[in-house]
Design a protein that fits this description.
Blueprint (H helix, E strand, L loop, with lengths): L2 H14 L3 H11 L4 H16 L14 H7 L8 E2 L3 E10 L2 E8 L4 E8 L7 H15 L9 E7 L2 E7 L4 E2 H5 L6 H20 L12 E3 L5 E3 L17 H4 L11 H4 L6 H17 L9 H10 L5 H4 L5 H10 L11 H14 L6 E2 L2 E6 L2 E4 H29 L20 E7 L3 E6 L2 E6 L6 E2 L7 E6 L6 E5 L5
Antiparallel strand pairs: 1-2, 2-3, 3-4, 4-6, 5-6, 7-8, 8-9, 10-11, 11-12, 13-14, 14-15, 15-16, 17-18
Helix pairs in contact: 1-3, 7-10, 7-14, 10-13, 13-14
Amino acid sequence: MNKQEQAAEQLFGEALDLPPDQRQVFLDRMCADKPALRRMVEDLLDENDRLSGFLSQPAYIQASAAQMASQTLVWAPGKRLLERYAITGRLGVGGMGVVYRARDEKLDRDIAIKMLQRGVLASDEARARFRREARALAKLNHAHIAAVYDVIEHDGADCIVMELVAGESLAAKLRGGALPMREATTIALQVAEALEEAHEQGVIHRDLKPANVMITPKGQAKVLDFGLARLLGPVDVTQTMAETVGVMGTPLYMSPEQVIGQKADARSDLWSLGVTYYESLTGIAPFRRPTTLAILRSITDETVQPLREMHPQTSLLAEQIVARALEKDPELRYQLARDLATDLRRVLRDLEPRRVTGSGTHAELVRGATVGAGPIRRIALRRIAFLAAALVVVGTILMVLGPVPATGNLESTQISFSNEAKLGPLLTDGARLYFESRNVPSAMSVSGGMIAPIPGLTGGMYLVDVIADGSKVLVWAQNMNN
């Protein structure tokens, strides 16, 4: 290794200790007149970011490069572990240890071995919990979860033997900015499906973030590093922030209950997924602030800027999903990953092309039924005139008869958690309610839940009627011409 490579390694270790948003300033200062050196350091950081899902850097306390070197064994290519695993190279280094590429000679496959830094498991109790969690993880078998194959101890080091996932982390991908709606939603859905499987097996992640989501060359998401997960149930004792600092997650993605030291559960993972989905759609982490204290205060006290204020073209349903996932009170948040996944599938469904155009006549495809613009306008105007006349007759009758006193106790139940005004006529087919939300024809279940725009309809269209079975709706648009 020449002097420039040694300098690059040293600067890489120092930059790695800094929060990501401070690294560029550091390199500006240290490599002001050394562009070649800076490129070498940035290449090392890029590679580390690409593989950072394996590294799970602690939130507040990170070991320096020198400390890592003194506390962590260095295994050269050719090193054999348990006469089965042969080290073939080093993949990266992080706050919790070093990740090696290796070959499982018994099963003839490439693997990753995560060697934990000395001191991460400081007691026999911590080591026993680690092995118990690893056994729970080894039971997970899902297309979007990186498999854990084994947990071993070699030369006094505790190691996780895991699936080697090719590709790049979502964190590295987001360095290029926001993702297209379909791609961001697809990734979020795959992560939700992974969490659904893990939660059903009694495992929570506790440190979900873009760095722990790998995207394969085929565009498939793989959630890694459930190494900080704990088994759900009464044995999971709440710890204070002072006790969990450094191993309990990354501040930007921590849930409010984690921030204040309360017990985290499956809903904490769903909060972290909501933050990740927001960042994927906007390119901006919603709670990013200049200091850790400011981040934590923002998570517990501040409301994120609505998605559609930042990107008006964002799906209204996607905005509502994020709003529900980021409820400060866990009781108001998504309770199950399955429910969040269902709503994400609806976003993908609504992204399917449904608008069709005919020669000289604009038409809208509404739930599989094409309705021409000219007939809509004429029918709508006649119906409006009829409804107006009917209202006059009804009004006259009510004036003659007078008000009918209510009998019994009147009860009401709120079925929408959205504070948006619901305008226009309130229509129903018995199963759904139809109205205008944010000036867009929308619908929701009569039993409550998410409000979603009706596919194919846009602002400037007004509801007139709905067929009894809900297969077609009649709309009127002022900008449609005969």
